[in-house]
């Protein structure tokens, strides 16, 4: 019974299912577990009122609501993309007022195939997320593609909590090695990639100062050599 419960939690941590267990884990476990990390990710992103911002894997949406507060009085807008259809449906319901006001856009999709044009976002942030990316190099390339020059990505995590979860068997579908993620960011073109050890959690940053010219051929992004 215990092993079945651990397996259920592990699967729903990777991708909350459209089921009672998925809703319970997604809305109660993840909301409580991620709240501080979400709030700090938004804070560290230094979102300005006219910024266009993307959250990857928004889960129960705690970070989305905090980010929307930053752009309420400006021209900015918050976007969220999530691989769990259950979380997408819930966010569309809970944050309907922000969506109707034109301040929030919710999308069902994957970080490895972001449905946004190049150079769209001023900031990207994510929380307890990169561990579940099956193709991390491609995901980081997509982050780089959709970010504007003079922008950055922020990821927040709690390594001690992750290690404890791994011991319990709850991270069997995850790989939270921060070095692997940082190397993938650097390979994708991010600069000044670093990790900070803050008060009870960690933050990983990847900056983009400038970008080479890009041209689009058959919907494939190719870096121009000129």
TrEMBL record:
Stored Pfam families: Methyltransf_11 (PF08241)
Keyword terms, alphabetized: Transferase
Entry GO MF terms: sterol 24-C-methyltransferase activity
GO process annotations (BP): sterol biosynthetic process
GO cellular component: a single term: endoplasmic reticulum
Record has Zinc as a keyword: no
Domain Methyltransferase type, first and last residues per copy: 54-154
Classification via InterPro entries: Erg6_SMT_methyltransf, Methyltransf_11, SAM-dependent_MTases_sf
Superkingdom of source: Eukaryota
Family: Belongs to the class I-like SAM-binding methyltransferase superfamily. Erg6/SMT family.
Name of the protein in its database record: DgyrCDS7394
Originating organism: Dimorphilus gyrociliatus
